[in-house]
Amino acid sequence: MRRSVLLTAVLAGCTAALFLAALRPTALAHCEIPCGIYNDHLRIQQMLEDCNTIEKSIAQIQELNTKSDAQSINQMTRWISNKEEHATRIQNTIAQYFMHQRIKPAARGTDGWDDYVTRLTQHHAVMVNAMKTKQTVDGAVAATLRESIETIGQYYPDEHDHGHSHGG
After folding, report:
1. For the whole model, what pTM was predicted?
2. Percent of the chain beyond pLDDT 90?
3. How confident is the model at residue 4 (pLDDT cuts 50, 70, 90)?
4. Is residue 36, in this structure, part of any structural domain at all?
5. What pLDDT shows up at residue 50?
6. Whole-angstrom Cα distance, residue 30 to residue 39?
7. How far apart are CA 1 and CA 43, in angstroms?
8. How many other CB atoms are there within 10 angstroms of residue 22's CB atom?
9. Count: domains in the chain
10. Is residue 159 part of a domain?
11. Which of 34, 35, 129, 133 sits most deeply, having the most CB atoms within 10 A of its CB?
12. What range defines the domain where residue 39 resides?
């Protein structure tokens, strides 16, 4: 009985969090003017940071899973919502920034076709892996997301890095 009350409370909290998140306006990864101001490497770093947050959320959800007090249920609901939000950010960055603006189409049969299809497939994999992190609390799924982000990261090196480090 107590476990069903816990599950009901978590589901109700998740539903409310998702409803509220859906009402909140979403910022695009960048404008679509085109303004000529791009920082592709920064977008990759932001997605890796989102992945860090997803991994932390999964760990916290797993830790709180054995508790049934109100505070733990509240915290679990917040971690679930947080995981969803950061996965959605990754999906939006891929769709709104990379797919719309950075992956240049090539006609079938041209020299660029194979590269275009490869990049499209790899970027799509990031979106699918982000979706999968919403569906589970398996750390291996988040690791696969990280790997897929790192795979596309090869196309977007840090053009501001000249062999020196910043900070301590």
Report:
1. 0.78
2. 71
3. low
4. yes
5. 98
6. 10
7. 46
8. 9
9. 1
10. no
11. 133
12. 2-153
Q: Which of 128, 41, 134, 123 is nearest to 85 (CA)?
A: 134
| Distance separating alpha carbons of residues 146 and 152, to the nearest angstrom | 10
pLDDT averaged over every residue in the chain: 84
Residue 164, domain member (yes or no)? no
What CA–CA distance (Å, rounded) separates 74 from 131?
Answer: 23
Q: How far apart are CA 146 and CA 123, in angstroms?
A: 12
Q: Does residue 58 lie within any of the structural domains?
A: yes
- In this structure, what CATH number is given to the domain that contains residue 20? 1.20.120.400
Is 127 in contact with 94 (CB distance < 8 Å)? yes
Convert the chain into a string of H (helix), E (strand) and C (coil): CHHHHHHHHHHHHHHHHHHHHHHCCCCCCCCCCCCCCCCHHHHHHHHHHHHHHHHHHHHHHHHHCCCCCHHHHHHHHHHHHHHHHHHHHHHHHHHHHHHHHHCCCCCCCCCCHHHHHHHHHHHHHHHHHHHHHHCCCCHHHHHHHHHHHHHHHCCCCCCCCCCCCCCC
For 70-114, write each residue's pLDDT tens digit. Answer: 999 999 999 999 999 999 999 999 999 999 989 999 999 999 999
Who wins on pLDDT, 38 or 166? 38
